[in-house]
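Posting for a labmate who doesn't have an account.
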Amino acid sequence: MRQQKAQLTHKSTYSIVVIFSVFFLAISVASFGAAQAQSVVDEDVTDEELLKFIEINRQFEVLQEEAEEQMKGVIREHGLTPERYNEIVIMENNPEIDSDASNEELEKARAISDQIIRIQERMQGKAITIIEQEGLTPERFQEIGTLLQISPELQQRFNDLLQQGY
């Protein structure tokens, strides 16, 4: 049990980041397969598109900070700390860990989770708006993100643009 608690504390440090970042992952590259991405030639990604991709990701950083603050606020409004909330979520999702959460804490965690889902949905809508306002479609944004993961040549072009101060 003590070892499980130590693992739980270690995991909770990282899980808050995971909870806050899930909606960005859903947008960025998760649903676009590598096989589809390979069918798009690297040269088909223009420098203009890469610059748009860079700007979108900069705006995503601001959006993510906003989401994190909102989520932390919701957690605190319910009388929990983000760390305790994450511990409860981990305990509830892992049957091998004995939960030390009270019924009141479990109810609070469920209410928090419902509100966090709504925040994530709003932020995902804002993220799609950002992508479209920058002149890309969500699908093209995903294609570029996937290509950046698998194409050393495109990664080099991307890094060159970043080094030039874009």
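Reply:
Got it, the structure tokens are right above this. The chain has seven helices and no strands.
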